[in-house]
Amino acid sequence: MVDVSVVVGASLEDDAEAFVAAWRRAERGEPVAERVLAFASWEGLSSVLTGERYRLLRHVHGHPEPSVSALARVLGRQYRRMHADVTALERAGLLDRSKGTVRATADRIRAESNYEGSRGRLSPCGVWGGAPACFLHASVTNDGDC
């Protein structure tokens, strides 16, 4: 697994610089496996990474569960709310359910907050988003997949 970087409030220029740096490393044949969650605001981050979702991530990192219902039972939560949390974290790229278990996709999450930033964000895959509480997930790899 790779680390996930969470960036809050970086500018479009910061995003473009990070993309170009990763691209250049890939062109030189250096391994590039960066995963970034970029949020336009602190509110956007806190709407995706809530306290309960962080607790869920910590649990499945050490103890993958066979299903959302098993996860809800173990953590003492309602299935409906657990399903919503798992879906949100899966969309963010922090959980995976594709191999018959609910499991974490990263060993570590690093956070960076910038006080000056733009409302819209550019991900390394060139996707633009600017909706309130919007997040973008991007992976940059040598094989060109995003």
Could you characterize the architecture of this molecule?
By secondary structure, this protein is an alpha/beta fold. Helix content is 38%, strand content 24%. The protein is built from five helices and eight strands, in the order E-H-E-H-H-H-H-E-E-E-E-E-E. It has helices at residues 12-27, 42-48, 51-62, 68-75, 79-91; strands spanning 2-8, 34-39, 95-96, 103-104, 106-113, 121-122, 128-129, 135-140. The longest helix is centred in the first third of the chain and has 16 residues, at 12-27. The chain starts with a strand and ends in a 6-residue tail after the last strand. Residues 117-146 have low confidence and may be disordered.
In short:
The protein is α/β, with parallel strands linked by helices and 146 residues long.
